Amino acid sequence: MYTAVVLDDISRNSITHDFHNWITLPKHWVKKAHHVTLNMGPLDDELNDSSILGEVCHINTDKYYLAYDEGIIALGVTNMYISLGHPIPLDVEVNSINKHPHITMYHHPDVAPKKSNDVMATCKRVTPFKFRLTGKVKVINK
């Protein structure tokens, strides 16, 4: 079980379509482009307020981390927030337990997607890629 911002179909299709416009991916790699992990287990009340569950979250990204040798391609997340428009417009920050919040885009079949956490800190091949995505905060039962 884990808590995450799960991308909506429009966001997921947008980032995978744009990615394929500028790079050829080995055919056997696995597409993820599914979520940004907030924490393992149910929503951590010390990290985020429980009222964010089920809310639409805005996600801003900044760059792709291309770690072919390590079997991972990830999209770095700069910030996440929920806009609450009642009664006063207010943006509430959404936090991730990961030091480098990200969306695992693709991975080699022999590499676990969680390897993205390690790759983000050491990856030397970085390409700017800005997106504004949306998704919902959910608890996922694996």
Task: Give Rg in angstroms.
Answer: 15 Å
Major sheet description: 8 strands, antiparallel
Strand percentage lies at over 45%
Q: Might you state the CATH topology name?
A: 2',3'-cyclic nucleotide 3'-phosphodiesterase fold
Question: What is the molecular shape?
Answer: globular
Query: Regions with pLDDT < 50 over 5+ consecutive residues?
Result: none
Question: Please, what is the average pLDDT?
Answer: 90
Helix and strand pattern: EHEEEEEEHE
Number-wise, the strands total 8
CATH class, please?
A: Alpha Beta
How many helix segments? 2
The amount of helix comes to: 10-25%
Number of domains: 1
User: Which architecture name does CATH use?
Assistant: Alpha-Beta Complex
Based on helices, strands and strand pairing, what is the structural class? mainly beta
CATH superfamily, please?
2',3'-cyclic nucleotide 3'-phosphodiesterase superfamily
Calculate the terminal CA-CA distance, rounded to whole Å. 5 Å
Search tags:
single chain, 142 residues, mainly beta, 2',3'-cyclic nucleotide 3'-phosphodiesterase fold, 8-stranded antiparallel beta sheet, 15% helix, globular
